[in-house]
Structure formats: structure tokens, C-alpha cells
Design goal:
Layout (H helix, E strand, L loop, with lengths): L2 H7 L4 H4 L7 H66 L2 H12 L7 H10 L6 E7 L4 E4 L10 H5 L4 H6 L5 E3 L6 H8 L11 E7 L7 E9 L1 H9 L8 E5 L5 E4 L20 E5 L2 E9 L6 E7 L5 H45 L9 H9 L3 H55 L6 H6 L1
Antiparallel strand pairs: 1-2, 1-5, 3-4, 4-5, 6-7, 6-10, 8-9, 9-10
Helix pairs in contact: 3-10, 11-12
């Protein structure tokens, strides 16, 4: 495989491979740590971010469902207790006696006992706003002031629900927008006016307990608008979450008032499927539903998805903060590790330089440390010592051979010098005859 193809294959190490030959060993170690660890950390971070993003939808659905269950439990407690209280009132002996006397006389009978009983029932029920008892033609009792919108019989008879109540055979009925007259309620249903305050009311006929067929009057229990609104305000999920309470007949009974009205979404989404995330008009929404334990009612919560991902955004921010801290720690650890790992090599290099440096002295302690090391650094030093010894032996052998060669040359030179002196000086001075061949060979 060519060098170029290897570089393409190991793309994460192109910086390391691109370092010049003059780069120090410590720098190469440092870059190696970073180039190996950073891709791993980046991959783990990306996988973690994907997991958080994928699981965030499930977390959002579960969290909204939990918030919805809490609100549903509060509403269920209010509705159940109100229905039980209404049942106690219509069957109370004082109330029965009071209505019987009122039917027999045009004057108002004494209501102190009824007032004491009803006021005692609603004393610690902050969600009850008022209680009104009427007959077929007049108001008999009210916790409201006289001649108010809720207590005056003329005003009551003009309400949109009055004919439904008097013509129904149900034991009790719940009515939304109980303060509206028939004309105003119709205009609201036709979207001719803005939505009015929705005051929820329970109403039921009061039968004579002697025969359970004669209707002596009607009981109306109004829920507190402020209490219900505070219940909506206590919801800590989203900023424009809408809640919708539907009856078993799929009629909207109660909803909260928010800045944005999402009720139109129900016309295009199958909201009976339960918890779901869907796309509507280019925006994602989270829809949750739960069944109330009263009257087969269903409570829905609808929230824009962007308002529910605060937790996942916080988790992602924490993740990236942790990754940043890890990268910083990795940088410092890589630098520290590179220094520690390169220090023996650098020290060994200086020790090798000291063998031949005129201005440096060998450190016996350092030499002993390297001799006793059992790792690759120690092996490298021992190999260098062997190389040093071999080089010294070679130098000595070469020096001895050169010295011997010079000695042989010197002996030959002396021998030639003696012959020349004998021939040129000694024989002529003695007057002896020239040597014969035999004598010359001896010389």
C-alpha cells in the first residue's frame, strides 16, 4: 500500500504524519495522545447527544403524562366531592322540610337551619363559590347576595342551561359557562364574540323523598373561577399548555385560558389515540390524555414541543460542558504524560552526549539508574554501552595495528640507513677492497 493511500486511510492522523522530522519526541507523544483520544471522545459525545435527542421525546411524553395525571387527580377530587356534597344537600332532612314548607306557602319559611347546614358544608371547600336553591318560580336560598346574577330568579331563568335543567330527567348535570344567557352563549358558540369566563356549575333536581317523583326545586353549585384558574397556574409544564376536559359525549366542558388557543388542532388530529407527538401547521406538538374517574370524562393536555425540551437542552448543555472539561483535562494530562514519558529518553540522550562532551561530566547515579532499569529505556542504554565498548575495542585494535605498522617501517628504515653508511663512508675510509658478492649479501 502506498504512503498516499495510508494517509487517506488514517485520516485522523494526518497531522501527526505531517510533522517534520525535526519535531521532538515529546511533541510527537503529545500529538499521539490527542489524536487518539479526541476522536474517541468526539464519537462518544455524538452518540450520547443522539441518544439524548432520541430519548427526549419519550421523556417529554412521560413527563407531560405525569403532569396531566396530577392535574386530573385534583380535578377528579373536586368533581367527586362536589357531586357527593350535592347529594347530601338534596337528601338532607332540613332542606327537604324547608322546600316542603316553601311549596305550601307563598312566604319564605325560616332558613336558619338550612343556612347553617349548607354553610358548614362549604366552609373548608375553597373550590365552591356559591350554592343556590330555587323552586319552580322563585329563589329560595342562596349563599350569594340577594338579586345578584346568580341568585335572582329572573336572571337564572334566562340562562342558556335553564330549560335543559328543567326538562332533564338526569340526577345531576354539569354546565359550562353557567353565567351566560342563552343569547350570549349562542353568540359565543357561533364565534361572534370572544370566549367568556367559563364558570362551571353542577345542577340537580331536588325530589321529594316521600315519593321520589315530585320535583320540589333545583340545586345549583358554582365552582370558584379563581380556584380553577389557580389550578391552571400551578401547572409547571410549558408556558402555553392547553388543557381540555371533554365529556363522555365528546363535548368540551372545561379548558384553561392561555395566550395561544390550540383548540382548533382537535379538529384535524385524532386526539383519541392517547399520548403522541404530531406535526401541525409546521410545528410539533405533544398531546397527552387521561381518563377521569367521574362521568367517563377525559382530560387532554396539548403543548408545543419546543416548550417541553428544556430538560433535554439542559442535558445537552451539561453534556457539552462535561466534554469540554474532559478535553481540557485530556490536554493537560497529555502534556503531563508526554513530559513524563519523554523525560527518560531526553535524559538518556544527554547522558550519551556526556560520554563525548568535553564540557560535561558523567553522572554515576544516572548511569546506575539506567543500568538497573528493566524496561525498553534500560535496554536502550545497555545496548548503547555495548556499542560504546565495541567501538572502543575497535579503536584500540586499529591503533595497535597502526602502531605495529609504523614500528616495522622504522626498523626497515634503520636497516637501509646502515647499509648506505657502510658503503659510502666506512669502506672508503678503511681502504679495504670492495666486498665480494658474498660479503655484499651479508651486508
Amino acid at each position: 500500500m502506498s504512503e498516499r493511500s495510508r494517509d487517506k486511510k488514517h485520516i485522523f492522523f494526518h497531522i501527526f504524519n505531517g510533522l517534520s522530522d525535526s519535531a521532538s519526541f515529546k511533541r510527537r507523544l503529545f500529538m499521539s495522545f490527542l489524536l487518539i483520544a479526541l476522536p474517541v471522545i468526539t464519537g462518544v459525545s455524538i452518540i450520547a447527544a443522539i441518544i439524548i435527542r432520541v430519548s427526549s421525546q419519550t421523556i417529554v411524553e412521560q413527563t407531560q403524562a405525569t403532569e396531566l395525571e396530577k392535574t386530573a387527580a385534583q380535578l377528579e377530587s373536586i368533581f367527586s366531592d362536589t357531586e357527593n356534597m350535592s347529594r347530601e344537600i338534596v337528601y338532607n332532612s332540613a332542606v327537604q322540610e324547608y322546600l316542603t314548607e316553601a311549596a305550601a306557602s307563598e312566604s319564605y319559611p325560616e332558613d336558619s337551619e338550612v343556612s347553617y347546614y349548607i354553610n358548614g358544608l362549604i366552609l373548608n371547600r375553597d373550590y365552591i363559590d356559591s350554592v343556590v336553591v330555587i323552586s319552580a318560580d322563585r329563589t329560595l336560598y342562596s349563599t350569594e347576595n340577594a338579586y345578584s346574577d346568580r341568585s335572582a330568579f329572573q336572571n337564572i331563568s334566562e340562562k342558556w342551561w335553564y330549560e335543559t335543567l328543567t326538562g332533564s330527567s338526569e340526577s345531576y348535570l354539569w354546565f359550562p359557562y353557567s353565567r351566560l344567557t342563552a343569547a350570549v352563549y349562542e353568540s359565543q358558540q357561533n364565534n361572534e364574540i370572544v370566549k367568556q369566563v367559563n364558570t362551571l356549575m353542577l345542577a340537580r333536581p331536588i325530589y321529594n323523598t316521600s315519593d321520589y317523583s315530585t320535583v320540589m326545586g333545583y340545586l345549583m353549585i358554582y365552582l370558584s373561577d379563581e380556584y380553577i384558574e389557580q389550578l391552571w397556574q400551578d401547572i409547571s409544564w410549558g408556558s402555553t399548555s392547553n388543557l381540555f376536559l371533554y365529556t363522555a359525549d365528546d363535548e368540551l366542558l372545561l379548558s384553561n385560558s392561555r395566550m395561544n388557543d390550540y383548540s382548533g388542532i382537535f379538529e384535524s388530529v385524532d386526539y383519541t389515540e392517547g399520548n403522541q407527538v404530531f406535526l401541525y401547521d409546521g410545528e410539533r406538538y405533544v398531546l397527552s390524555r387521561t381518563e377521569l374517574g367521574v362521568n367517563d370524562w377525559t382530560l387532554y393536555m396539548l403543548t408545543p414541543y419546543t416548550e417541553t425540551t428544556n430538560n433535554s437542552r439542559v442535558m445537552l448543555a451539561i453534556l457539552f460542558s462535561v466534554v469540554g472539561a474532559i478535553v481540557l483535562a485530556l490536554f493537560l494530562m497529555s502534556k503531563y504524560s508526554a513530559n513524563n514519558m519523554s523525560r527518560p529518553v531526553i535524559s538518556l540522550s544527554k547522558l550519551m552526549d556526556a560520554y563525548h562532551g568535553a564540557d560535561q561530566e558523567l553522572d554515576p547515579a544516572a548511569i546506575e539508574r539506567y543500568q538497573n532499569r528493566s524496561d525498553e529505556i534500560g535496554q536502550m542504554y545497555r545496548s548503547y554501552e555495548q556499542l560504546e565498548d565495541r567501538m572502543n575495542r575497535l579503536i584500540q585494535e586499529i591503533y595497535v595495528k597502526n602502531l605495529e605498522k609504523k614500528m616495522r617501517s622504522l626498523r626497515c628504515y634503520r636497516r637501509r640507513s646502515t647499509r648506505i653508511f657502510y658503503i659510502t663512508h666506512w669502506i672508503p675510509s678503511t681502504g679495504l677492497p670492495w666486498p665480494t658478492d658474498r660479503t655484499r649479501s651479508a651486508i
